[in-house]
Each structure stands twice: as C-alpha cells, then as structure tokens.
Amino acid sequence: MRLSERIKALxxxxxxxxxxxxxxxxxxxxxxxxxNIGQPDxxxxxxxxxxxxxxxxxxxxxxxSKGRTEMRDAISGYxxxxxxxxxxxxIYITNGGSEAxxxxxxxxxxxxxxxxxxxxxxxxxxxxxxxxxxxxxxxxTKAEDGFHLPAKSVIENLINSKTRAIWISNPGNPTxxxxxxxxxxxxxxxxxxxxxxxxxxxxxREFTYDGERFTSMGHIDGALDRTIMIDSVSKRFxxxxxxxxxxxxxxxxFMAQVLKxxxxxxxxxxxxxxxxxxxxxxxxxxxxxxxxxxxxxxxTLYTELKKIDGVICEEPKxxxxxxxxxxxxxxxxxxxxxxxxxxxxxxxTMGAPGGGFxxxxxxxxxxxxxxYVLNNADLIKAANILRQAIAAYPGRLEAIKA
Length: 402
What we know:
14 helices, 402 residues, 4-stranded antiparallel sheet, Aspartate Aminotransferase, domain 2
C-alpha cells in the first residue's frame, strides 16, 4: 500500500530517534545521563497539582476549541506582566508549543513556500515546516559571534517571492543566544518591507543569565499584528508532560483561520488546562530560584566542557543548552557507540547529534547539543564520561588524521 511523499520526506527526531539505543543500554544495566533532551528535573509547582485535585465536576467535557477562558485569561495576565498587551481573544490554547508552531506554519504556508530560520535551530522546526509542504531557508550564524544574527543585507538576500516568515527561537534552542532589541527591530523592519510574518518562539523567556536583558518580539513597536507568538508551560514551569502551549497574535484575520485548526482537533485537555492555569499563580520566587539553578548548571557544564581537549563551545546566555563541536568524525555514530560500547563503572552519557539542528547538508556532523537539565553533580559525572569517551572513540579526529 502507498505512503504519502509528505510523510516519507520527514526525518525522525535527532533528539528522540536514538532512544532505543539508550533503552537497550539501560536493559543491560547501564545508567545513562540524559543530556540529549530538554526535560528538566526541576520540581513542577504545587499549584498545578492542587488545582487538579480540587477540580470537581460530574463529567469531563470538551473544552472550548480556543481554550478555557480561565487559561486564556491567565496567559493574558502573564503577558501584561511583561508589558505585552495580549487580550483573551488574541490567545488560543494549544497542545504544547509544538502544536502552536505547527498551526502557525499551516496557516501561512502553501506547498513550495519557505520560512527563514537562523541556523542551527530546534530540530522539529523541520517537521512542522515539511508537514505544511514548505521548507526552511537557513540564515547563517556563527558560534564565534554567539550565534547572533548576520547583517540585514544577508537576511534580505535570502528572501524570495515564496518567503512567508522569519522564525526565531529567543532565547535560542539549541544555541542559547539571546537576541538584542536592535536585532529584533531589524527583523521587524525586514518583515514590514517584504510583508511577511514573524514567528517568535519564546518558551525560554525567563532563562537568561549574566545580566543579559531579554527583549520580546512583543516589545517592538508595530510588530504585534505580524508576530505569531509561541509559548508553553513546559520549560517555564517544568511541566513538559502537561502539553499546554499557546499561539498569540493581535491579528483577527489570522486567528480566524487558526480557529479552523483548533476546531478540527476539537480541544485541548480540560484537566491539563485547569492545572496549567494555576501555574500562572506561581510566586515569582519560583522562577527566580529556577533561573539561579540553571545558571549554576550552565556554569558547571560549560566549565567541564572547556577542560576537554578539542571541544569548542561558546558560553550560552539563555535557555538551557550548549551546542558544542567535538573532535570526532560523526556525532550520531559517537552517541550510538557510547550507548553500545562505552561506560565508566556502568555509566554513560547521551547527547543530541548536531546534524539534525541544521538545514544545510553536512553542517553539524561533529557537533552535539547538550542540555544542562541535570543537577550539578550529575553534570560533572556526565562530562567526565564524555571526556573519557572522546579519548577512547575510534573515530576521534586525532585518530583519523593519524
């Protein structure tokens, strides 16, 4: 029987497709330090669980396709605390930020269209774009520049008649880059000139370090009617499994079209919205403590990586990832080799191969995204295992050159 060309064009997640190797390693008794996935071990606030326990109804009914009123109002209030003026009707609730991103691309793209994205980028952007029969055009960035945006002319030269949006993650996944207000103003100027949208994935908004000031696309004058804001409770409140996100824009025509997609999938979980709405009542002290913890973990992993001969990385200023270049031939082969053939006292480390974070063929092949989502003691152990694994790996660059 026939399968669609669309589905065959998709690639498996570089973050998740190697999980079977990790499962096999665990079945053999190995402990695996998971630095491959952005799943924090931070405690989810009690407000989430208390709200669900106290929710008493006779029947769990469908929620409104737009999202529960209390959920949308909670997010509206949150944005206003950031001086971003989204009202309830500017916000629809989605099944995580992933569905919001998928809805955004489906709403603006036809087959053959393209979206500009700074490279490297979150690997699933490829999936969301390809399922809309569109493509990503990479905007080149450099590690030595902290993965900040190139000159305006570089970006404009990538735009053609099929370009529908510029899409950014800020703070960046996988780079940890935090864009400046000047960079965002440049993107707004470009978007207005070429009459295209801006997609702003800001799920790591709270996580910036070293006094780095976060500027939202929602803070830039004249941007709200063309900025498709994507958000989620997953990282902010360490509630990845709740699968609650949102899509927001001050553009009624756009939201009327998104509503068709919301209605088509019926609704988001009623119970999860009850819990997630309560998360926005979490004291600010929670996020302040989480920020301090991630900064400490950033410092730990970055320090340990800099001790490893041949590893090249820049200190990230936001989110909770480090993109590192390793002295190896192929990071995917290396990850598999570590899971199958390498351990220190029954323990090994898993990262996310870097190639999947690029659209340009050949880039990222010896890079790895490492998520500092474990406690400091475990990060030190994981980095030590990584150091010894690189030294022992048959495909290390020194061995190849020899």
